[in-house]
Amino acid sequence: MSDSAIAALNSLLRGTSIDDHEEALKLANSAIKAAKGNPADLTTAQHTRVVALVKLDRFDDALRAIAEGGAALDKTCVMEKAYALYKTGELEAAEQLLETTGINTRGMKHLAAQVAYRAEKFDKAAELYQEMAENVEDAMYGEENDLRINILATYSQLEMQGKGWAVSEEHKKLSRDELEVFETAYNAACGSIAQGDFAKAAFLFKRARDLCEASEDLSEEDKKAELAPIIVQQAYVATKLGNLEEAARFHEEVVLSDISDASTKAIAQSNALILKSESNPYMAQRLADTLPVVTGNDRLFEEQATIFRRNKYIIELQAQKFAGVKSKTAKILSKEAEPTISSSKCDLGALNAAAASELQTGKTALRRILPLLETRPTDVGLLLTVIQLYIQLQNPAQALNLLEAFFKRLEAATASENNADVRFAPGLVALAVALYRQQGRHSAVRSELAKAASHWQSKQKAASSGDSLLREAGIELLRSTHPSDLSTAGEAFTHLVAAQPDDRTATAGLIASFATSDFAKVQPYLGALSPVEKLTAGVDVSALLDAGVAALPVVSHQQQQGKKRAREDDGETTGEQQKQQQQAAKKQRRKRKLPKNYDPAKQPDPERWLPLRDRSSYRPKGRKGKKRAQEATQGGYVKGDEETLELAGGAGSLKVEKANPAGSGGGGGGGGGVKKKKKGKK
Q1: Are the beta carbons of 486 and 480 closer than 8 angstroms?
Q2: CA distance 264 to 57
Q3: 529-565: string of b/e by CB count within 10 Å (b at 16+)?
Q4: pLDDT bucket at 571, cuts 50 / 70 / 90
């Protein structure tokens, strides 16, 4: 019985292919029982059982079988164990096993690349795939197409991570043959989504769908499984382009039962929920809680999980659950004290601030958020939220002070590569430059860009996330006439040319930087630029010389002083103010109206500004009028009753106006002459 079981297993293994894995598992189990005293046959039977379990997608059972087989089987089943660990989501264990054993075969490289891809180490996966693509000597038939599909998928994920600089322009280009395969067209469309080119993504997804539907190599069931993620992506792209009706139509075409991947199914349900635009936040929260939680090897990538979590917290904020969001986000942020510019952590910082302020804005929000910044001084998301609030309150100076204090904390902290990368992150440097320019501090702009350029030049990699910053820093420093600034610009452009020799902007910048100081450095690059003769071919030099040199109008010192403030406020003038100024300039001054009987030859009356009665030509009418005019002189002496008072000591006498007696009418004093009415008896 024992010999027959082992013989049956050996006969099965001698076949060219094994399609019935259940039969192989059954024979392997029988052979294991029969080969108790024969180590060689036992190891073969155990190995066969492990392979059969892996083929049947029973990965947990395969890992248990390997553990039961002992050290001997553990060494024999390295590939099977690593693959089972990968499929069960034990990515760190699988990666450690492969590194310990050694990635020395093509199959091991494929598995290592898959593990790195699922662990979101896309740069490592791209390196392994590219290495295999360049070494085609030991490649299998049809492997080249699979490699190209996986390489494009890896490049798309690098774009999603913001590491598009790691992909050369040559590798980003699609050939005509790649557009004839639906998998490569699909991966290229995902890369267009990462780049923000949704129109191109819509075209490529449509191309992928048409190719998939027209494929003769796929069965109807396989077509449904392949079409489901394509349609889900088409709905997403249509939503981003604002075609909501088209997106709803795509969602109606999605059949959730046809989607085998749990993460794709969760994304389809979430996007359909968002498209409904539920106005009631409490109902929206209840619907969001019904979305499935994906775990294991089918779990969402970090970028996708971040979006799911952010949407969940935003819905809870709209439902006024501030305390819950604040405690959850604070708990996650407390686990990572190091500063980071990761979008997932920055989003959490902003959401925590929104929960702490209870969705308030302005000074009310600042009073509640500023104490949080003291407890989490390295939280970039919280810092940017506070800076945004200060800018909304028209207080950019305080915003810049906070940013500079954050930079000083990072510089004073223990030297580490992560702190330095955060300190000179392109986004934060761009924010500092914008605030400096708003205040007219151009020297500070050049100093900040020079320090950032020096940091990213020190990186050992040929390309890094600071390449865009190096380019902008070099262009800004070229505007300076200081030799040190020109030297720093030249070093930045030299780094860019070394990383990307075909970059014409970097080549031109390098030549402009060293043209006056070190001509030997720029001489090898002169041929890469367009010759002067070609650039000036359409220019009529004689006509320019005959026209002369244009000169600006001379402005006086007083005009310069008057316009100085206007130039300073130029950047702060709003569009509405500029429009009003233009309308005021267009208004014509109204002409003065002259009297109807105006005679330019006649001399105007010099007494025309005096009152009528004060003019020499004034003649009152009648005798009484003349007498009244003489007595009514303004400011003059009013004649009345007089009395003479003798001064003491024989010093003489003085005439004064006689006061009105008490009870007489007239005067306006304190009412002393008014008789008081006696109170009557009741």
Answers
A1: yes
A2: 20
A3: eeeeeeeeeeeeeeeeeeeeeeeeeeeeeeeeeeeee
A4: very low
Structure confidence by residue, pLDDT tens digits, 155-185? 888 888 877 766 766 666 777 777 888 888 9
- How many beta carbons lie within 10 A of that of residue 84, not counting itself? 25
Query: Residue 245 above 80 pLDDT?
Result: yes
Distance (Å) of CA 110 to CA 115, 128, 142, 158: 9, 8, 14, 18
645 strand-pairing partners: 654
Alpha-carbon 306 to chain mean position: 15
Residues 207, 213, 216, CA angle at the centre, nearest 5°?
A: 120
Q: How far is CA 230 from CA 109, 203, 219, 250, 267, in A?
A: 28, 12, 17, 10, 12
Distance CA 289, CA 398 (A): 41
Buried b or exposed e, range 417-451, using 16+ CB within 10 angstroms: eebbbbbbbbebbbbbbebbeeeeeeebbbebbbb
Percent of the chain predicted with pLDDT > 90: 15
How many CB atoms lie under 10 A from the CB of residue 258? 15
Q: What is the gyration radius of the CA atoms in the chain, in angstroms? A: 44
Spatial separation of the C-alpha atoms in residues 127 and 571, rounded to whole Å: 47
Q: Please list, in sequence order, all residues whose beta carbon lies within 8 angstroms of the beta carbon of residue 264, skipping any fewer than 6 positions away.
A: 228, 229, 232
pTM: 0.67
Residues 6+ apart with CB under 8 A from 49: 25, 28, 29, 32, 65
SS3 643: strand
Give phi and psi for 657, each to the nearest 5. Answer: -70, 140
Asked whether residue 339 carries a pLDDT value surpassing 70, the answer given is yes
Alpha helices in 377-518 (DSSP H): 380-392, 396-412, 417-423, 426-438, 442-457, 467-477, 483-499, 504-514
| pLDDT, tens only, 251-309 | 888 888 878 888 888 888 888 888 877 778 888 888 888 888 887 777 888 888 888 88
Residue 74 CB contacts under 8 Å (≥ 6 apart), including other chains: 66, 81
The kind and range of the H/E element at 653 are strand 653-657
Locate tokens 């002083």: which residue? Answer: 561
In this structure, the number of other CB atoms found within 10 A of the CB of residue 669 comes to 9
**Span between the terminal Cα atoms of the chain, in Å:** 144
Joined together, the tokens standing for residue 327 give 């405690």
- Distance of alpha carbon 452 from alpha carbon 6, whole angstroms: 69
User: What span, in angstroms and rounded, lies between the C-alpha atoms of 585 and 414?
Assistant: 59
- Two tokens, residue 149: 């599909």
